[in-house]
Each structure stands twice: as structure tokens, then as C-alpha cells.
Specification:
By secondary structure, the chain is of the alpha/beta class. It is built from twelve helices and eight strands. It is elongated and about 130 Å long. It binds 2-acetamido-2-deoxy-beta-D-glucopyranose (NAG) (3 copies).
Length: 359
């Protein structure tokens, strides 16, 4: 009886167990339509074919001049919890116009992950890209080049051991992060796409990552990320469904798709398109994020709610009190003498007319 029960529990556990792996993609240049075509929250799992087709779509458009495909065997979603280990990746991600974070990609069987070779061939066929393979340890392998041909740097990092302590894993990941930064620095272009992924999977309880009620939705997010409720903070801390939530979930501007890195690259437009483009101010509406600035950073006049008289400004009055008193005095003096003068003139007139009458 007890054995039966244990078997049943085992069976249920096996049935609801699934293998997943995390993947993170970001592109400096906007990949138009990519985010819009994801018809569910990033906090819900992605199927493997879905993930592959989204990434293929991003790659085949050749929007970047440099591509980094990084594979970290043994990488788990929990590793992303240590923000410090991903300093440079997070920097580059923040600058990017398109971010596709896939905390959980469902895999059909253990070790069945993204077909990175297929992405490479897409890039070499569509973008005439040149491939470089490096092992993620030896810096000298980083290619140094100055031409404009599209490059793909495939980095196969050494596996993270499942035995290692969190501290050791984080240290390793920090080294990997620095390696990626060095690769980015050697590229003669800011227009870079990075795919950070793994070729190993991990078992997970599927119910834990498919409950729609525990998704944090856009309308629950406060405009000021500093006032996130304690309840939501706890939800995020224990969540197994987000990568770098401060960038991907709580930055409201990420819910809209727009080019963040347009730097005078409008060449080649004919007049009509240029006109149309200059009329498009919808981004102003889309960008809802409010920038809260420290008062010490205000430029002149920036904290004025409305234009007010200098005399209503206490500092101004205090600093220039003597001058203001003198000016006011002179003004009063002039007015007083004018009034007296006018009075005298009128008195004279009255006196002279009465004199004339009496004569
Ligand atoms: C993952 O990649 C590493 C490094 O390229 C390789 O040695 C390993 O066999 C791969 N593992 C799987 C499950 O494909
Ligand atoms: C992990 O630890 C176990 C026992 O402590 C050991 O047998 C195994 O070889 C270790 N694996 C790795 C990859 O270090
Ligand atoms: C604003 O900046 C000043 C100087 O940098 C600092 O002392 C102060 O604490 C800051 N205030 C806030 C509200 O961050």
C-alpha cells in the first residue's frame, strides 16, 4: 500500500517534470516586430520551435554588424539572480533596442536545446558573415579586425559545474561577462547582437512556471520603480520566470518597441519619407517612463513650475536686498517729486485763475 502510494507520487512527479533552459537575446539595433510577435508574456515558457523561429527571424535580417553567440553549459536561470556577475552584459542590454528574454524554454528531452549551428548558417548565408570560434578562456583568440564585414563570434565557455558553490559559479560567470565585454570592445561597431544561452537543460516542475496568475503584468507596475510593493518584491525574489526583472519587467519603456540608437543614420531617405518620418512623434507618447532627477542636477530654470517674477524668488531677494531697497527708494522719490510738482502746477493754475477772476 505504502509502496503503491510512493510509486504514484513518483509517477506524478515524473509526469509534471519537464526540462527547461534559459536564453537571453539582445540587439543594439531594433529588430522591428520581434517583440510584438511574441503573443504571451516573457514570464510564460517558450516552446523550443518558438524560440528558434524568433531568433532565426532576428538573425536573418542582418541588422547588426557583429553577432556574439555565447554558450555556457550548465547555466541555470538562478545564475542570473546575481546581477554583479553580469555587469557588462547588463550594460549592453540596457543600451539595446530589442531584448528577448526567455527565462524558460521548454525542451523535449534532456540536452535538446537551441540549434546554434543553424543560427550560424543563417548568418553566413543571409548576411555573408564570417565565423570565428573561441573558447572563452584564451583572450588571444578574440579576433581583431577593422573591416565592415559582418562577424559572428561563437564562444563556447567551459561548463559550470553543478557541484560548485554559488560563489564559485558567480565568479566564473563574472569572468565570462568580462570576456564578452572584451569581445565587444574589439568590434569596430556599436551595432551588436548577443545571444547568451546554454546547451544543457534542467528539470523543473511545469506547474511552477505556467501559472498565469503569478505573471506580473504591465498595469501592475508602478511608474516609479522605487515604490514596488513588498508583496511584489517577494514575488520577484522567488520567481523562476524572469531574467534581470529590473530591465525586462519593471522598465515600462520595454513594453514598447522603438529604436533607441538612431544616431544620424537617416541617409538614403527620399524627401517624402523623410517628411513623414519627421512628423512621426508617436514615440513621445510611447515613452512613458518618467526620469526623476536629483535636484542638484537641474539645469537653470528646470525646477520652475511656471515663470515667476524674480521678486517672488526668495534667494534673489535675499541676495540683492540692498539693491532692491535703493531702487524702490529712488522710484518712490521720483514718484513723490512728480506728484508734488503736479500739485504745485495745479495750485498755481488755480491761484492764477482766481487772481484773474478777481481783477
Ligand atoms: C555543450 O557544449 C559543450 C561545449 O561546446 C560540449 O562540450 C558539450 O558536449 C555540449 N553538451 C551537450 C549536451 O550538447
Ligand atoms: C560532484 O561531487 C560528487 C560527490 O561529491 C563527485 O563524485 C563528482 O565527481 C563531482 N562532480 C564534478 C563534476 O565535480
Ligand atoms: C542629490 O545629490 C547630492 C550630491 O550629489 C546628494 O548629496 C544628495 O543626497 C542627492 N539627493 C537625492 C535625493 O538623491
Amino acid at each position: 500500500m505504502l509502496v503503491d502510494f510512493v510509486c504514484l507520487v513518483c509517477l506524478v512527479a515524473v509526469c509534471s517534470a519537464n526540462t527547461v533552459f534559459p536564453s537571453l537575446f539582445f540587439s543594439y539595433k531594433l529588430v522591428p516586430g520581434l517583440r510584438v510577435s511574441v503573443d504571451h508574456s516573457d514570464q510564460m515558457p517558450f516552446s523550443l520551435p518558438e524560440a528558434e523561429s524568433l531568433l532565426t527571424r532576428a538573425f536573418e535580417q542582418c541588422l547588426s554588424n557583429g553577432y556574439i553567440i555565447a554558450n555556457v553549459p550548465g547555466l541555470k536561470l538562478e545564475d542570473f539572480a546575481s546581477f554583479d556577475s553580469f555587469q557588462h552584459i547588463r550594460d549592453q542590454m540596457t543600451k539595446s533596442s530589442t531584448i528577448l528574454s526567455m527565462p524558460n524554454v521548454l525542451s523535449n528531452s534532456e540536452g535538446d536545446t537551441l540549434d546554434l549551428n543553424r543560427f550560424e548558417s543563417v548568418l553566413s548565408v543571409h548576411c555573408n558573415a564570417r565565423m570565428h570560434y573561441i573558447d572563452g578562456v584564451d583572450e588571444d583568440q578574440i579576433p581583431r579586425y577593422r573591416d565592415t564585414r559582418t562577424r559572428v563570434i561563437r564562444v563556447d565557455f567551459p561548463a559550470l559545474s553543478s557541484n560548485a558553490t554559488d560563489e564559485n559559479r558567480n565568479k566564473r560567470l563574472q569572468n565570462y561577462d568580462e570576456m564578452i565585454m572584451k569581445i565587444i570592445r574589439e568590434m569596430p561597431t556599436p551595432s551588436i547582437s548577443v545571444l547568451f544561452t546554454t546547451n544543457t537543460t534542467k528539470e523543473i516542475d511545469i506547474d511552477e512556471i505556467t501559472d498565469k496568475n503569478s505573471i506580473i503584468r504591465e498595469n501592475e507596475i508602478p511608474a516609479n520603480p522605487k515604490v514596488i510593493s513588498l508583496d511584489m518584491r517577494n514575488k520577484v525574489r522567488t520567481s523562476k520566470r524572469m531574467i534581470f526583472p529590473d530591465i525586462t519587467v519593471f522598465d515600462k519603456s520595454r513594453y514598447f518597441e522603438y529604436e533607441r540608437n538612431e544616431k544620424g543614420e537617416r541617409g538614403g531617405l527620399d524627401k517624402d519619407t523623410a517628411k513623414k518620418q519627421s512628423k512621426d512623434d508617436t514615440w513621445l507618447k510611447r515613452k512613458k517612463k518618467k526620469i526623476v532627477k536629483n535636484k542638484s542636477l537641474y539645469r537653470f530654470g528646470e525646477d520652475d513650475k511656471k515663470t515667476t517674477s524674480a521678486l517672488a524668488n526668495q534667494d534673489f531677494v535675499h541676495d540683492n536686498a540692498l539693491l532692491i531697497v535703493c531702487m524702490a527708494g529712488i522710484f518712490a522719490f521720483i514718484v513723490f517729486f512728480d506728484v508734488v510738482k503736479i500739485g504745485f502746477t495745479m495750485l498755481k493754475k488755480v491761484v492764477s485763475t482766481s487772481k484773474r477772476k478777481s481783477e
